[in-house]
């Protein structure tokens, strides 16, 4: 078997040969790295090639409107328009031609297949389609695999839930937050989802599907269904897939990407089992490539027994965003970790975290709605948060319906500075 590193190097040098002549953004970077004709090793590539950052891409699109200088081919060759969510700053526009779009779809086909999807299955897409890449790539790839795709945009949660029950799809595709939201609506309206037909809940868009407490909460809410996680980004495409047999791991598509995990802000790799920032190089998206892209995703790489030593998986999936971490009294707080702690306490329906940094010491308060007006898990939640984070976190029960609800990526953290 050919080592994965050799396959990646060959794909990398093929990519460089395709983009170096005409991609203005990367021609400059490759020239500075002495890499216009490729690299003799991946180590050399990682040593010499500079990073690409989201902030850099945003500046480039401002300086070279409307699409920046990252396009390898003339604009008329591009057929797909997508845009990032903008949660980490200015939204970035990303274009694909037909060949690069097909590369994205082939990645998504791996996700479907590893989840156990087979021709003839029906997939329920529980969201309104916008400019984000994930919806469209999941939908198009499912159709190419022979899956029956059911779009469910333009509906309220109640309408969408009833539409799902009437169609009885085998697979539900949504964010972790929205899977719980639909189940909550079902409880409020006395709708029984046990006969929904859903056997797989495909989640992405935010951490959760690989976190035991959140996964367990979703599976309890959808009896008989298994949660399958995956992740990707508009600018890099689908990156990883989950397996029902190993639900806490995300497997990276190493044959499609050069994957590095580095200490945030450095070029220093982290050891297996330590956490760091995921850095990716797309190996087949010639029309809109990314070389050594700092994703901002915090991950923990672990070895896979019996696999090539260069291959690793992500334990716990995406742990959070590098820039989302807040230090409170010496404790590192990440949204994904706090979400897991809150979701492990029964009786909490929705919540919001307020971090007040205006005083001498930051104060953290979790405001929550209870699943039932008659129950109050405040004491249990406060004890669990203290035991988990070794610090006091304020807890406040609020009236049902007073907190925002989310169909897509949840934004529950409120910083007061």
How would you characterize this protein structure?
This protein is an alpha/beta fold. The chain is 30% helix and 25% strand. The strands form 5 sheets. A 9-stranded mixed β-sheet has the order 4-3-5-6-7-8-9-14-13, sandwiched between helices. Strands 10-11-12-15 form a 4-stranded antiparallel β-sheet. It is globular and about 70 Å long. The termini are far apart. 42% of the residues are buried. The model has no long low-confidence stretch (mean pLDDT 91).
* Helix-strand category: alpha/beta
Strand content: 25-35%
Largest sheet: 9 strands, mixed
Identify the CATH homologous superfamily of the largest domain. ANL, N-terminal domain
By CATH, the topology of the largest domain is Rossmann fold
Total number of β-strand segments? 21
A few lines on this structure:
The chain is 30% helix and 25% strand.
Throw out a few tags for this protein.
11 helices; 9-stranded mixed beta sheet; Rossmann fold; single chain; 2 domains; GMP Synthetase, Chain A, domain 3; alpha/beta; 417 residues; 4-stranded antiparallel beta sheet
Secondary structure topology:
Layout: H1 4-19, H2 24-32, H3 42-48, H4 54-63, E1 80-83, E2 93-96, H5 98-114, E3 122-125, H6 133-144, E4 148-151, H7 157-167, E5 171-174, H8 176-188, E6 200-203, H9 212-221, E7 226-233, E8 237-243, E9 246-252, E10 257-262, E11 276-282, E12 293-299, E13 301-303, E14 312-315, E15 320-321, E16 326-328, E17 331-333, H10 335-343, E18 348-356, E19 363-370, H11 378-389, E20 394-397, E21 413-416
Parallel strand pairs: 3-4, 3-5, 5-6, 6-7, 18-21, 19-20
Antiparallel strand pairs: 1-2, 7-8, 8-9, 9-14, 10-11, 11-12, 12-15, 13-14, 16-17, 18-19
Helix pairs in contact: 5-6, 7-8, 8-9, 9-10
């Amino acid at each position: 078997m050919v080592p994965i590193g050799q396959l990646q190097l060959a794909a990398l040098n093929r990519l460089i040969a395709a983009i170096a002549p005409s991609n203005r953004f990367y021609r400059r970077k490759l020239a500075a790295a002495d890499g216009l004709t490729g690299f003799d090793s991946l180590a050399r590539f990682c040593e010499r090639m500079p990073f690409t950052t989201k902030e850099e891409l945003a500046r480039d699109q401002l300086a070279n409107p409307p699409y920046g200088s990252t396009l390898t081919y003339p604009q008329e060759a591009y057929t797909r328009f997508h845009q990032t969510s903008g949660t980490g700053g200015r939204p970035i526009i990303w274009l694909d031609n037909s060949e690069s779009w097909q590369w994205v779809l082939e990645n998504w086909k791996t996700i479907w297949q590893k989840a156990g999807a087979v021709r003839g299955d029906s997939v329920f897409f529980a969201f309104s389609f916008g400019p984000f890449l994930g919806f469209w790539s999941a939908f198009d790839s499912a159709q190419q695999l022979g899956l029956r795709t059911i779009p469910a945009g333009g509906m309220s949660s109640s309408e969408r839930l009833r539409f799902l029950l009437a169609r009885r799809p085998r697979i539900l595709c949504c964010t972790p937050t929205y899977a719980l939201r639909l189940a909550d609506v079902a409880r409020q309206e006395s709708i029984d989802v046990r006969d929904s037909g859903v056997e797989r809940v495909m989640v992405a868009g935010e951490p959760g599907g690989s976190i035991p407490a959140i996964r367990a909460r979703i599976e309890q809410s959808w009896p008989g269904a298994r949660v399958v996680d995956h992740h990707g980004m508009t600018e890099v495409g689908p990156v990883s897939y989950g397996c029902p047999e190993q639900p806490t791991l995300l497997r990276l598509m190493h044959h499609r990407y050069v994957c590095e995990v580095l200490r945030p802000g450095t070029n220093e790799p982290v050891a297996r089992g330590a956490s760091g920032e995921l850095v990716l190089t797309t190996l087949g998206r010639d029309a809109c490539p990314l070389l050594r892209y700092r994703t901002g995703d915090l991950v923990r790489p672990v070895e896979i027994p019996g696999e090539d030593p260069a291959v690793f998986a992500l334990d716990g999936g995406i742990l959070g965003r590098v820039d989302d971490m807040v230090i409170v009294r010496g404790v590192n707080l990440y949204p994904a970790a706090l979400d897991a702690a809150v979701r492990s306490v029964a009786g909490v329906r929705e919540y919001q975290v307020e971090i007040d940094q205006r005083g001498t010491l930051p104060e953290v308060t979790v405001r929550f709605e209870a699943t039932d007006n008659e129950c109050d898990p405040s004491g249990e939640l406060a004890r669990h948060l203290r035991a988990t984070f070794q610090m006091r976190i304020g807890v406040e029960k609020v009236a049902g319906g007073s907190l925002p609800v989310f169909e897509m990526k949840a934004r529950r953290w409120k910083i007061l500075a």
